[in-house]
Write a sequence for this structure.
């Protein structure tokens, strides 16, 4: 029997993507393609423009990011920066992520002897 984890992996990835994007913007202002490259270079997370821009738009509408068009050498780019509310949200998300992942890690350790079979 073949076990497919594609659906589960996709749901896990989508659940963490908002957090990943906020973490990518936390150190400073970035534009969309720069966020995509940062995520890929640092984590091997491959995120498409069709995935990231709707999330960035929602995060801006929610007040967690501020978006601003800026002129550049090539063409204008929309830069995103964290708002005060976004920093508070990110702190809560990181705390929740750490608590949840620690619980799952404890379960993995406890079940480790069964996963070798």
């Amino acid at each position: 029997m073949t076990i497919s984890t594609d659906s589960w992996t996709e749901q896990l990835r989508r659940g963490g993507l908002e957090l990943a994007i906020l973490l990518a913007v936390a150190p400073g202002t970035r534009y969309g393609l720069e966020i995509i490259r940062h995520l890929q270079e640092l984590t091997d997370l491959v995120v498409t423009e069709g995935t990231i821009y709707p999330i960035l738009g929602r995060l801006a509408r929610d007040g967690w990011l501020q978006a601003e068009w800026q002129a550049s050498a090539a063409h204008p780019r929309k830069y995103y920066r964290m708002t005060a509310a976004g920093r508070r949200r990110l702190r809560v998300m990181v705390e929740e992520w750490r608590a949840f992942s620690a619980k799952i890690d404890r379960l993995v350790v406890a079940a480790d002897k069964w996963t070798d079979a």
